Amino acid sequence: MSTKPVLGSFLWYELMTKDPAGSLAFYPNVTGWGVSTMPSPAGDGTDYSMFAIRGTPFAGCMLLPAEAQSMGAPSHWLGYVGTTDVDATVAQAAALGATVYKAGMDIPHIGRIAVLADPQGASFALFRPESGTTDNMGGDGNPQGGVAWHELMTTDIAAAWDFYAALFGWTIFEDMDMGEHGMYRMFGSGEAPIGGIMIRPPQVTVCLWSHYVNVLDLEGAIDAAKQGGGVLAHGPVAVPGGDRIAQLVDPQGALFCLHTKDAQA
After folding, report:
1. What is the DSSP pairing of strand 171-177 with strand 244-249?
2. Domain 147-260: which CATH class?
3. pTM
4. Rounded distance between C-alpha atoms, residue 30 and residue 226, angstroms
5. Comparing 10-129 with 147-260, is the CATH topology the same?
6. What is the pLDDT of residues 98-137, one digit of tens each?
7. pLDDT score, position 239
């Protein structure tokens, strides 16, 4: 993990789940993550559970709010994208058609956050670190447990692109023709792409962001997920460049994805 630009980088992840204890037991067996806790930064006397890679937390695990559950929201992963001014970015996003779920709020000793949905309905969050730097944030790079890729499944690639590029300054690296699956747009803000945008397949019923986790043994991770109550939704399949991926659903209903550099069939 290393320093990267605040603006446009994925800096944190949060699993909003109907069963935090079950989720905290499930993922370490699949990804090799550790689990740690800290007193709630909101100061409400509750612990905040986190997933960690080699002792460094990079994601949180929280109970999906009752209000969200009552509205039919499923368990899901939420990606936090960096910005240097949360409130200005919220205002800009709202003017571009976003829904604001949680306006800017300060988390003591951590930074300022907000939660939104893009105009097509995919949820994402904003984060300005209190330190102003991104040292050891985001869980990137590690071949076991690190986040490898970020993928938006949407109903309108062009509209979604215009929205996110305006907010975060992302640039297009390549548009790939995926045949019957349509165009796949790879994007980023540095020297290498960090994610892709594609049309939501029919089996995915809502627009959403998914995040791909590195594993050294893809088949072993899939088996561990199945043994823990997860379901294989797609794959494993090879992707351009020789890497392989799989998409799964955890026991609480959250979509998550795995990635490996191992190109063996």
Report:
1. unpaired
2. alpha beta
3. 0.92
4. 9
5. yes
6. 999 999 999 988 899 999 999 999 999 999 998 766 665 6
7. 86
Per the CB < 8 A criterion, the answer to whether 24 and 67 are in contact is no
DSSP E strands in 97-241: the ranges are 99-107, 111-117, 123-129, 147-154, 171-177, 183-188, 195-199, 208-214, 231-238
| Domains of the chain by residue range | 10-129, 147-260
Burial (Cβ within 10 Å: 0-12, 13-18, ≥19) of residue 202: exposed
Q: What is the pLDDT of residues 226-259, one digit of tens each?
A: 999 999 999 899 988 789 999 999 999 999 999 9
Structure tokens at 68: 């969200």
Kindly state which CATH superfamily the domain 10-129 is placed in. Answer: 2,3-Dihydroxybiphenyl 1,2-Dioxygenase, domain 1 (3.10.180.10)
156, 162, 163, 167: CA torsion to nearest 10? 150
With a cut of 60, say whether residue 2 has pLDDT above it: no
